[in-house]
Amino acid sequence: xxxxxxxxxxxxxTDWSAAPLALLAAAAVALVAxxxxxxxxxxxxxxxxxxxxRESVQQALVLSLTSSSxxxxxxxxxxxxxAWWLAASDQRGAFRRRVAAGxxxxxTLPLVLPPAVGGVALLMAFGRTGLLGQRLxxxxxxxxxxxxxxxxxxxxxxAMPFLVTTVDGALAQRDRSLEEAAWTCGADAWxxxxxxxxxxxxxxxxxxxxxxxxxxxxxFGATIVFxxxxxxxxxxxxxxxxxxxxxxxxxxxxxxxxxxLVSALVxxxxxxxxxxxxxRFTSRRAG
Length: 287
What we know:
The chain contains 14 helices and no strands. It has one domain: MetI-like fold (Orthogonal Bundle). The longest helix is centred in the first third of the chain and has 35 residues. By secondary structure, the chain is mostly helical.
């Protein structure tokens, strides 16, 4: 049997019609790459161990790693059940779908909300005279602002939506026939979630968790408003960069390079998984 001849392209010679698009694409890449390359070139790699050996820097680094890890754990603990509920609600009645759409919009709002506005909102909610903060102070003597707990709360506020969005998109694409088979075998809702649903979404859960941790590690705006910038207490690495830039720019460059390398490692570890999850999530909503 003779194979069909593939169509012959009508293009001949060099097509310059796409040149403006290529130039604009190159400009976009340069806009991102040039500042990062400049940062790496200006870094004093020889002095980096000395800068990282400073007590204030070590305190900021330990606080950043600890608080971002706790914030990520809280995000997983609360965000995964929320993502499961959102995905499950899309298969229910019209009223529940509308409620889920409202909750989804509310949860993803911190993704586009200016971080400083998030910090002000946290103060209005958990400050000493805030909506809930005044009751925590009066009933339990607990004051959250300008404490390490405030750092964790601010990081959770801005980072959890990344986890919820990623896991929600993955759960929406799962094979529901496997869950139905588990129900047929007598598994209850918790057993089905733990043994079937969660393993199906595990790659996206891992990607969302790493992305959530990286976002918490780099949080600045909400933290400085709600938790302050107290060295040894609430000063995280991004805040240390901001403070050091005013007194020792070279040290600030070194700290920035450290955060840049951590972010690069996160991107390499994810290997595009979270981006693919977000793409599926966006296309499903658009459809």
